[in-house]
Amino acid sequence: MSEITLEKGRLSQDLLKRLRDYYLPLVDPGYIDNRWTRWRNDPRIIRYVAKKAGETGAWVIYDPRTSMIEEIVTSTKGEGGEFLVSVMDALIARESLVAAEILEGDEEKYRWMVDYGFRPTHRHTVRGFPLVRMELSTAVYFERCGLGRSVKASSEELVAIERVPVAQTREDIGKALRNLVGRLGGLARFVKPGGTVVIKPNIVSDHGMKEGVYTGGIVTDIRLVEALIGLLLPVAGRIVVAEGSSINRSETGRMFALYGYDRLADMDRRKVRLVDLNTDRLIEKRVPGGKRMTSRKVPLTMATADAIISVPVLKVHFAAIASLAMKNLQGAMPPLEKYMSHFFGLWQSLVNIHLLIKPGLTIVDGLTGLEDFGPVSGRPKRMNLLIGGTNPVAVDAVAMRVMGLDPASSPPVLLAYLQGLGPIEQELIRVAGASIEEVASPFLQPEINLKGGRDLAIHASRACPGCSGYLHFVLNKLRRPDPRDPTRLLIDRVFEPKVDIFLGPSTDTPVNPGTTNLFMGICQQHHAALGTHMPGCPPHAEVILNSIFSLFPDVERPKYADETEEAKLGRMLNEVLSTQG
């Protein structure tokens, strides 16, 4: 097949005639008349003409404000299939992760879009016409684009690596920090005299304390934050240390106290304070491109800062592969936004946050990293490093290579790269200070075990690390003695009918309506009517726990976080969804 090209064009009478012919058997002509009038009167709508060998083969009506395909139709009746797949490939190469809105009852379009990788996520009515919102599976997007697409050339980014002496005294850390910032252009590049600087560490949970002893690698080392505040005090007018803990979200204050952060204000009571971002005032901001979510509520502290310095930890993440700069800003969002991000798409949410909250400087705490089952249950790994830069994607790319990881293996890093937030190619990142080769030390990766049980089968063909990692997290809680029969594991309990759990965009085994079927994530949402669906991308751990442990009504469900908080967030999310459309 000849290469498909997309060109911006105009609404034409040929397109109008084709649309009327296409929809005549399906819907009242008012459907096309209404949409045509809106497309004609809205200059922001893009009218793509798909050409093959110079001839018009299809049209795509696209709204870049919401990344929404409002129409896609071939110029000739009966042509579709492979040609429309090629048109869609060309579109996502240009526009990245997209959604589509189709008429409910348009079975032809629904079928080929599902075959491509779109999934029905929402049904609503506009001007009396029933519509279905279709989201493109992120896993499918990665497969069809990945590193094969031509990403808009980035300018070269600078990332610095600074060694810290093994003793890691406060003086050592302070000197290394000053050297790192100096290699990046000096403090004056990032902080204006008298400005408000927000430091965003990673204080995810209390797992960094073992029997009252700090272990390192889970939360940002307070000594690094102290050194950073000391560097900022002569210049900044106000310094805010801000975090919103992701587990047991009402306890950020307790986390501050547990790790000694509450004493940071003693460094200068006039200038330094702490803010719990989970309880901060919020301001709503529109997301450029509107991918998965059109707006986000952002803490006022982050929205009004003159400078933001992100200070993540060098650690592995069982679902995101690495938890570094891109992942750190999840803690900058309020509780409902954190919860919603899983429902609408965590990886795209992390990219969207970086479009709204833009750290001017990222400093990765590599004093002690975390390998194996991070971000909170892994093994500390002494690294004696600081890694810093201005571009979060480039910083993550360098940090992941230090960890022995491929940057493209992390869904949020790959998605940010594909959407033009920064480079991951080594030739586009200049490393100052120590080289990657000098300091690299492979981090142990978690073993993701998706093996099922006697009557419980897992079907995970083409599943991304997100769903795989979160399902492993829950299945691991079934690998213990069954209270009904301690001679076997809970996962090996006898089920009649048997249980099938599906994840990933394809189904290697046909769905059997006679079994108990659980479908995981947006990738399996088209099967929701055939069993129990766990919404999300990837689904929140609470959603997976609730669904799978419903199979074991006699067993107490493990707690991921405070049950009251999560239940409240679930109700709030349902209220948000009920107002859509």
Keywords:
seven-stranded mixed beta sheet, 581 residues, alpha/beta, 3 domains, 27 strands, Aminopeptidase, Rossmann fold, ten-stranded mixed beta sheet
Counting copies of identical and different chains, the oligomeric state is single chain
Number of structural domains: 3
- Cα(first) to Cα(last) distance is 39 Å
- The CATH class designation of the largest domain is Alpha Beta
Q: Specify Rg, calculated over alpha carbons.
A: 25 Å
Shape assignment: globular
Poorly predicted sequence stretches spanning 5 or more consecutive residues = none
Helix content: 25-40%
User: Average pLDDT, to the nearest integer?
Assistant: 93
CATH topology title of the largest domain: Rossmann fold
What can you see in these coordinates?
The chain has 581 residues and is of the alpha/beta class. The chain folds into three domains: 4-136, Aminopeptidase (3-Layer(aba) Sandwich); 157-439, 3-Layer(aba) Sandwich (Rossmann fold); 456-573, 3-Layer(aba) Sandwich (Rossmann fold). Strands 8, 9, 12, 13, 16, 17, 18, 19, 20 and 21 form a ten-stranded mixed sheet that branches. A seven-stranded mixed sheet has the order 1-2-3-4-5-7-6, sandwiched between helices. A four-stranded parallel sheet has the order 22-25-26-27, with helices on one face. A hairpin with a 4-residue loop joins strand 3 (55-63) and strand 4. Helix 11 (335-344) crosses helix 12, helix 12 crosses helix 14 (411-418) and helix 16 (465-475) crosses helix 17 (541-549). The protein is globular and about 75 Å long.
